[in-house]
Amino acid sequence: MDFNELLAKAREYLPPEKVALVEDAYNFAAEAHQGQMRKSGEPYLNHPLQTAMILAGLQLDASSLVAALLHDIPENCQIPVAKLEAKFGKEIAKLVDGTTKLARAARQAPEAMTKEAQAENLRKMLLAMAEDLRVVFIKLADRLHNMRTLDALPTEKQLSVAQETLEIYAPLAHRLGIGELKWQLEDLAFSYLEPERYRRITRLVTARRTQRENFIAKVSEVLRAEFDKAGLKAEMSGRPKHIYSIHQKMERYAALGKHFNDIHDLLALRVLVDSVSDCYTAMGVIHSLWRPIPEAFDDYIANSKPNGYQSLHTAVMYLGITPLEIQIRTRDMHHIAEYGIAAHWRYKEGSRQDMRFEDRVAWLRQLIDWHRELSGAEEFLESVKTDIFIDQVFVYTPKGEIKDLPKGATPLDFAYQVHTELGHRCTGAKVNSRLVPLNYQLNNGDVIEIMTAKGAKGPSRDWLNPHLGFIKTSQAKTKIRQWFKRQERVENIERGRQLLEKELRHLGVEVEREELAHLFYHSNLNDFLAAIGYGEITTHQVAIKLAAQQAPAKTAPEVAPAAPAPSAVRVLGEGNLVTHLAQCCHPVPGDKIMGYVTRGRGVTIHRQDCYNVIYESEKARLVPADWEPTDSIYPVSVEVKAWDRVGLIRDITTIVAEEKVNIAAVNFTNHEDYTTSTFLTLDVKDLAQLSRLLVRIEGVRAVISVSRVGDEVVGKTSLRKKSR
Fold this sequence. Notes:
48% of the residues lie in helices and 15% in strands. By secondary structure, the protein is of the alpha+beta class. The protein folds into five domains: 3-193, Hypothetical protein af1432; 205-340, Beta Polymerase, domain 2 (2-Layer Sandwich); 391-485, Ubiquitin-like (UB roll) (Roll); 489-537, no CATH class; 634-717, ACT domain (Alpha-Beta Plaits), CATH 3.30.70. A hairpin with a 3-residue loop joins strand 5 (312-318) and strand 6. The chain is globular, with a radius of gyration of 30 Å. The protein starts with a helix and ends in a 10-residue tail after the last helix.
């Protein structure tokens, strides 16, 4: 890119003296980077130039453009920040220094960035952002250009950078309201992480592009005539839906049994008008012309999103047959939707940011509080991802005070946001004057009333169980964990021991407890049990860790991998032997396994604690085995003991269906004490899925216990035969 393009862009909104400063910075950078080349083979200077061009597209101030041009000089050219300060001033030097520290933190992480390193990098970035947002604007632009040239890096690094971009940088751009950067980061990351799906969706979209453009032109013509009758001036254009956004919608539609052709907002129209009153007038004209689709209307003007986004969203049936999504907004709202907080950025001598800007970055102050309160970088990363980087809902206290919470938040999350003690003492909740369960998911506009115990009361450990859905926010989880941590250590150890033993019985797994503690970086077993007792470690995490120990990490192969064995098992380090899973113990990924060399049937795979393995007389026929990555499913026998009642089986099978698990066989045994044993053969993917399912079944009314069993327990009622 020629520097004249950046100058032309800057002259559109900067005064001449500021443009001259940008020109000085370019000349300084050109001299400093002289002879340097990027891995892509292009001159290094092109990277800071492209970064500055992205920021000029957001119409950021001259200091941001200058800092973007200079941001790699301290690291790559060994020119100290002090020299930049002497030439360009303290403000620009501080921006360069902040950006350089973030880049250095990222480079210190290994090629496949560990979760802890990623968390610490994010912590530094967000705290720098709280001091000066422009540091993160520069970092986002820097990441966007790096994503555009990512193909120059090795495959492993491409996947690592793309994953981090999708998890951290794109959500951050969304939280700042910069839609223009968000969709580009998402699409680029998606193209590396899932190239086949990216290309398939691109082909689907391209195939119908002309048809959609003709449709939008026809709709615009009809609407323009109606707007003229109402004396309304409006600009209309088609709103393209981006590739990653289409992918997300296809995933949601697939779960509902719908197809790509059912996505109605691929046909979308954007209407820009002069004023807020014109927005509502335009909506009235549209609704009088075509029938609105029920529950497809959102008023983000009266209730703007936390990132400042404002617009009216509606969907109608065009001519009664074609669904059409329409967005209506003013031109100022459109500018903010594209550029977010960057649209409000004004640095002038002696001036202050406007109040709207202050309101929209209020959540940054929350980050400072979390930084002081949360001890670990990973805990900080979890809190930011769950509480900051997802969509929000707006709810009200009984007195009319508005609270914003992450989408999916519950009355308990609301209670803990209002006050810690209110959360601890919560016994129930009313939403819109109606009693609701504590795992009810709040919606926009709900009025929440929390009912509390009169005396002292503490939280329930069940609230920390991720399968039960009582809490969503990390703020609430942290408060609850802190409460349990303050309880007697002996009580927590005993409680943790009970929870762990119960989970291992669920899964039918035998493992050394000290070895398991080491997997969670606890050298002392009691410390590990105490962590489970007060909720820092959940039993679901234990199940996932056990599964991971048996499943090798997936890496990006340079060539297409060979087809796995039918049971996705590697025997003696070889993956191409004939294997099949034993019907006596039904091993699944996550179980420790052993192979048994049969006569003429290949290798039978058993769990290591299987009766037939332990008491095998010909030990020489037992061979080591482990799992390979696979999407296969595995049959597991489960016994559900419960008090006999009407509707018991219906409730159990409903939960199994919700988890998308197939029931291959079901049998019953009734007992004289009015209890019943239900034996289910479930097709599961791994131990983690089995753990989640058993916890949910155990929560069914009248269920006494749930545990994994072998076919020798089921006996003649099983549909499967015992084999060797």
